[in-house]
Amino acid sequence: MAYDTTVDTICNDLEAEHESLDVIVAQITEEQWELTTPAEGWDVKDTIVHLVQADLAALAAVQDPEGFPALRDRIVGAAWGFDEVFGNKDGKTGQEILAWWRTSRSDMLSAFRARGPKDRIPWFGPDMSTLSFATARLMETWSHGADVADTLGQPWPATDRLRHVAHIGVSTRGWSYMNRGQTVPEGAVRVELAAPSGDTWTWGPDDADNIVRGDALDFCLLATQRRHRSQVSLEAVGSLADEWLDIAQAFAGPPTAPRAGR
Question: Which of 101, 89, 99, 123 is nearest to 18 (CA)?
Fold first, then answer.
């Protein structure tokens, strides 16, 4: 099944992902805003502020693609930092952070919607198309939302928006090796996932010898390293499929060890 989407579709799904997390944090107490999440060193406030900072950085990249590389270099070079450029949680209540996030994500979505699907946008890694950029923001929002839901003991229902997350998880198979200084092995891996709606999502050739099968939610939790492989029900057929599931990492940054979740 081919993965195909539009700017409006991905932005609508990203907006829905925002709203799902908003519903959870809108009603929590100030004490709950300060609960530690499974992300080491982060509480709930840190998590939402991280999303704000990334949204504001994305907005800067979309609105000023020519000037963004200079801003990026200053942030990466530690001359500035995200807190200095975009603000931080210091002195803010949970409700103030929530209002800040609502503004930042709305502005970012408006900027995405005004761009063509293949327009290139600079970022901290390679440039991305508008479609890829918005999809990456959805993946990050969903995965950090899972952290917050785990922390607060709230349900984090699976929806067919997971297809965007799964697509990134499949597309970054090679990255999972390169990020660890390993050679990407030759050979394709087919992925067959059961969607929340009951559909089946597939990637890769029909005749592949290596196959990953299972629940889409489990695959997304594994690829974003919100669950350890021992905690999900995914079948790996063939050595390539098996070794990939041990190192799958759908997000940028240095290699990390998959963590145990709820």
Answer: 101
Structure-token pair, residue 65: 């693609």
Q: Token pair of 6, please?
A: 């539009």
User: And the tokens for 203?
Assistant: 């990637």
Cα distances (Å, whole numbers) of residue 94 to 21, 51, 103, 195:
14, 14, 14, 34
Q: Quick one: average pLDDT of 202-229?
A: 97
Name the E strands within 127-262.
128-129, 189-194, 200-203, 210-215, 234-237
pLDDT in tens, 101-120: 999 999 999 999 999 999 99
Which residue ranges form the domains of the chain, and what is each CATH number?
A: 7-152 (1.20.120.450), 162-247 (3.30.1050)
Residue 1 has a pLDDT of 54
Please give the pLDDT value at position 209.
Answer: 97
pLDDT category of residue 37 using cuts at 50, 70 and 90? very high
Give the burial class of 242: count Cβ atoms within 10 A of its Cβ; 0-12 exposed, 13-18 middle, 19 or more buried.
middle
Q: Indicate if the pLDDT at residue 39 is higher than 60.
A: yes
pLDDT at 77: 74
How far apart (Å, rounded) are the C-alpha atoms in residues 204 and 191?
A: 6
Number of H helices, E strands in the chain: 11, 6
d(CA 117, CA 99): 29
Which among 253, 7, 5, 9 has a CA at the least distance from the CA of 143? 253
- Name the DSSP class of 191: E
